Amino acid sequence: MDLAFIIIAVLTLASAVAAMSLRNLVHCALCMVMTFAGIALTFLQLNAEFVGLAQLLVYVGAVAILIVFAILLTRSEDAKKEVRFVSSSTVVGFGVVALVAVSLLAAIQHTQILPPQSVVAPHVSVKRIGEQLMTNYVLPLEVIGLLLTAAMIGAVVIAMREPDPADSVDVQQRNGSPLKLDPDSKKTAVVANE
Amino acid sequence: MKPVGLEHYLVVSGLLFCLGLWGVIVRRNLLIIYMSLELMLNAANLALVAFSRFNNKLDGQVMVFFVITVAAAEVAVGLALIVALYRKKQSAHVEDLTTMKS
Amino acid sequence: MNLMILELAVVVLGLGILLGDLWTAAHQKHLLGYAAAALLGVILLASFFGLEQVGSGPAYAFNNMLVLDGLAVFFKRFFLIAAILVLLMSVEFSNRIQSGISEFYCLILFALTGMMFAASANDFIMVFVALELISVTFYVLNSFQRNRLASLEAGIKYLILSALSAAFLVFGIALVFGTTTFTNFADIQRALVANPALAGNGLFLLGVLMIIVGLGFKIAAFPFQIWAPDVYQGSPTPSTAFLAVGSKAAGIVLLLRVLFVAVPAVTQHWSKLLIIISAITILYGNLCAIPQRNLKRLLGYSSISNAGYLLLGFAALSQAGKAAILYYLAGYLFTVVAAFTVICLVTRDRDSDDITVLAGLHRRSPLLAMALTMAMVSLAGIPPLAGFFGKFLLLKAVVEQGATNSAYYWLVGITVFGVVISLYYYFGVIRAIYWSKDVTDFSPITVSWPAKLSLVVCMAAILYLGLLPGKPLKLSEDSALALTTPVSGSKQLFH
């Protein structure tokens, strides 16, 4: 087996496990960045340069930063509340995850008509993807444009200053001014993705 | 040693998906839950790219492009919502979402 | 291009509302809702002239991604009517939304576009994109009352569970794409015919199952119903109504297409699964609704049980079942919109949605009392209203299949049991209107004429669908024909 694949896969999975189990939120976010980057590397391994770079730009570049911002804005104390190890949700979670994992792995193992392993790697240029997007997939592309518009309007509406005066004074006293930043950061994030 | 085949990528993708699902169900902080959801979408993307490569078809990669775009839009709206809730309630935990009685 | 002219018109209208907002005085902004509703009415009328050439057969566009057949046209008109009625309701609601009422209208129109694309989707990529357009707009619509904690919570709960279902949907699509190498419904169906072993392939079946999970969330079927009561209760009333009608119907039309166009060979083997899901959904919705005192939460559970009734039509696996689904949905649209419009008007000056706000409603506004009574009677399935005839058709379709599998008779029994339970809580609402003891408030409720019009239209439609089922039944049977013809049969000759 390819050594590079093993290293990347193990790193990706390990950082995902860490992200799911660490107590400190910022550590979780950093581990998640590692996972996103590992998945981007796997895309590159699979000859999907365009998607790999898009993954790096969008997830590592934009999504992770937004999440870190949100963590700082909400100053959550994750460690304080998550002390219980065995709760009902842990049991349910274990059951559901075990079910999904077993059925997935069993299905992967027992599937026969997987295509042959020795396929010649297709050369996927950005040009071909662009052509596909502008011909066969032009309609979903347009709907995505509409979706981004809707998301932008939505993020602005949600982050809009509330007209209720008593409330906004209350929030300002407690949190100071940084909250004013977030409508802009959301907006730029969406525009950047477009 | 065997060459790296489709099934290896699928196993990695399946494990990432299950890890994300685990995080969604077990973790209590909304931001972590949100990150886990992104992880699940990423796992699906990995499966799509792997299938795309081994089926020698481009459709999977195009789909991944759409998924990444949608996920970014969702993150923008979702984080705005979580921050708005925090401003209102000073908390970002699922246990505190109890305004409505069941 | 001609195939998506309606969607284009709706998008342009949505952007027009956003622009119109700039030139409208603040106190008149809520009137933009009337303008939007009127223009949607024009689009609805235009659909009766522009789309008639479709009668000859399905038309495909954009590399077969989009299909325009009887089913698509039926649902497009359905969504347009729903959006018009919801927009009229939103105008009544506008005093409870501090800022951004035009954005509210605009997002309703964008969600409508997503639903209309979903009605025509013939490719899994299109399914994903249309569903996400609906979801993202609903995150915002549900949390639009930012000053109310309940609304924000509703938005976040919807956000998380909807994103979870989207993850399942994408993974399912990935598995189906990987095993068939296609994303188009017709191609997948052809691949299934050409290679019957595929229907026994674990990865493929798991993929289909995950797609059903993703869509089951949208229609609030068991076990993906947990979000419904909280989200229904916390969201602004017009969003709840649109969620209950539009989003659910979008899930239904996609489920119809996936199960009966893309993977009919798999669906044939899964009738037991559908029977079980349908039975549990009916029981869960009806049993949990009994103790509810909050009107919107009650309707949330009622919506779960209605998802169960709709699944009866799927479980029947017959043409009659599919037609019954369409008929039932049409009745459900007018019933639910009438109920939510009344709730929206009654709770206008109060903060509570508790059932006690209905006390003495028949003296405060006879029209509202009558509309809500009719809606409840129809939901309970009492003749001669729309809900009765819809349930009758669904049960008839199930009984016809009884010969093949005795589980269908059990399903009928459970359904009848569920309907009997539902009588209790629906009549609790009616009792709260007419027979409340401590009525303190007799101030009459003023109802604006557009709201009156919308209520009268709903009541007329409920009566019409219940008393004169001939023509609408023919329409739903014709629309369901789109789901019969296995295209593969004729195409096979070319191979």
Describe the 3D structure.
The complex is a heterotrimer of chains A (194), B (102) and C (495). Chain A is mainly alpha-helical and 194 residues long. Chain A has nine helices and no strands. Chain A has two domains: 1-82, NADH-ubiquinone/plastoquinone oxidoreductase chain 6, subunit NuoJ (Four Helix Bundle (Hemerythrin (Met), subunit A), Up-down Bundle); 125-194. Chain A has helices at residues 3-21, 25-45, 49-74, 78-81, 88-110, 126-134, 138-159, 165-175, 182-193. In chain A, helix 7 runs antiparallel to helix 9 (182-193). Chain B has 102 residues and is an all-alpha fold. Chain B has three helices and no strands. Chain B has helices spanning 6-26, 30-55, 59-89. In chain B, helix 1 packs antiparallel against helix 2. The two termini of chain C are 30 Å apart. Chains in contact: A-B, A-C, B-C.
Strand segment count of chain A: 0
Helix-strand makeup class of chain A: mainly alpha
> Judging from the principal axes of the Cα atoms, what is the shape of chain B?
elongated
CATH class of chain B: Mainly Alpha
Shape of chain A: globular
* Largest sheet: number of strands, sense, barrel closure of chain A: none
Q: Assign the CATH class of the largest domain in chain A.
A: Mainly Alpha
Proportion of strand residues of chain A: under 5%
Question: Could you please say which CATH topology of the largest domain in chain A applies here?
Answer: Four Helix Bundle (Hemerythrin (Met), subunit A)
CATH architecture of chain B: Orthogonal Bundle
Oligomeric state of the chains?
Answer: heterotrimer
> DSSP helix count of chain B?
3
* CATH topology label of chain B: Helix Hairpins
Attribute tags:
heterotrimer; B: 102 residues; mainly alpha; Helix Hairpins; 3 helices; 0% strand; C: 495 residues; two-stranded antiparallel ribbon; 2 strands; globular
Question: Secondary structure elements and their pairing?
Answer:
The complex is a heterotrimer of chains A (194), B (102) and C (495).
Chain A: H1 3-21, H2 25-45, H3 49-74, H4 78-81, H5 88-110, H6 126-134, H7 138-159, H8 165-175, H9 182-193
Chain B: H1 6-26, H2 30-55, H3 59-89
Helix pairs in contact in B: 1-2, 2-3
Chain C: H1 5-22, H2 32-50, E1 59-61, E2 66-68, H3 70-93, H4 101-120, H5 124-142, H6 149-180, H7 185-194, H8 202-219, H9 227-234, H10 237-262, H11 264-269, H12 271-289, H13 295-316, H14 319-346, H15 361-364, H16 366-380, H17 386-400, H18 407-434, H19 449-467, H20 470-480, H21 488-491
